Amino acid sequence: MAKIKSIKEEKFSNKKCLLRLDLNVPLSESGEILDDTRIIESKPSIDYLIDQGAKVIIISHIGRPNGKYEKKFSFKNIKDQIENRINREIIFIDFDDQSKAIDIVDSKNNSTLFMLDNLRFNPGEESNDDEFIDFLSSISDVYVNDGFGTIHRNHASITGVSKKIKSFGGLLLEKEIQNISKCMTTKSSNSIAILGGAKISDKIPIIENLSSSFSDVVITGGMLRPFLVASGEISNSNDIQDDNEVIVAKKILNENRNLFIPKQLICAKSLDHEPELLNSSQIESDDNIYDIGPNSLSDISNMIINSNKIIWNGPPGVYEKELFQNGTKTIIKAIVNSKSKIKVAGGGSTVAAINYFNSSDYFSHISTGGGAFLSMLEGKFLQGIEVLK
Ligand code: 3PG
Description:
Elements: E1 16-20, H1 37-51, E2 55-59, H2 79-86, E3 91-93, H3 101-106, E4 113-116, H4 123-126, H5 130-138, E5 142-145, H6 156-160, E6 166-169, H7 171-185, E7 191-195, H8 200-213, E8 216-219, H9 224-230, H10 243-255, E9 259-260, E10 264-268, E11 276-279, E12 288-292, H11 294-305, E13 309-313, H12 326-337, E14 342-345, H13 348-356, E15 365-366, H14 371-378, H15 383-386
Parallel strand pairs: 1-2, 1-5, 2-4, 3-4, 5-6, 7-8, 7-13, 8-9, 13-14, 14-15
Antiparallel strand pairs: 10-11, 10-12
Bound molecules: 3-phosphoglyceric acid.
């Protein structure tokens, strides 16, 4: 993949720099930031630009307010928490004062940090509207995108602005693209992709792309059942809501010979029922698959230990419940013990599981992206990256 233009190639002193971040962080009911990884990971670019003498205007979205102001989605609610995490003061520009943004920015010294309110209060953000692009470009001399988590979106602040002003990729964006691309493209005879998730139809291009870049692709999570039905392991399919999933699974199995489908599983009638260790042929229509059994886990662990590159998206079981966390724990343990230099993970629930078991230090790269990470695994053309080349 051709390299993006790095912020190291530009001088930012005396410049107004629009900095696109992905500060779409999870919040508790009372508005506390539950996971600050995206904020912490944005700090190196903020520090770099401020130290260079730029006026930095942070822009981001949070949630999906659908093009209109909604108090609960205002960054004003979490401005103090962001300031604490980045250890810097922010001059916050209220949504109502957006038209005065240029005057506010011009009235302050270099090396000052500003922040606009939620981009998605403006309908022009998601529709990539010219008028909104013009507004964003008018308040800045140069644009830096460091919001990897949104790089798959074709929005004004991601693909639009870079048509108007000089544009660069930030330090986090560079790190994400380099590490994920390296994992996808490094040739290795022993490599493993572990993939979870609920709907196969959403994952077809990802499974196909991983199948061609990795020697083994392990299927886990909600996708397991239709794969087991498709391969004739489970005869009943009455509780598969979408029969199409089985048809899709059959097609994928026929076309990709390197899929590993675990066949010993931990099942229960519901999360409150007693779990049972079952072989796939024993699974009945009212059994839910909540985790992988020890024999299948031992096969997966051996594959991981012998791999020279590992990528992981999607916990294999309900790791928050003690009875169903052995699969997730065992996969993490095998990744920790593997001598592979490339150990990449991404996706909200995967990163939450890694943090839950305090294992983040053992990965070579943990992505801040959800949909963006999956788009990279799919090998998709990402316009947000293209415009920065
Ligand atoms: C994410 O959390 O994956 C990004 O911030 C993108 O958010 P979106 O799915 O609402 O566009």
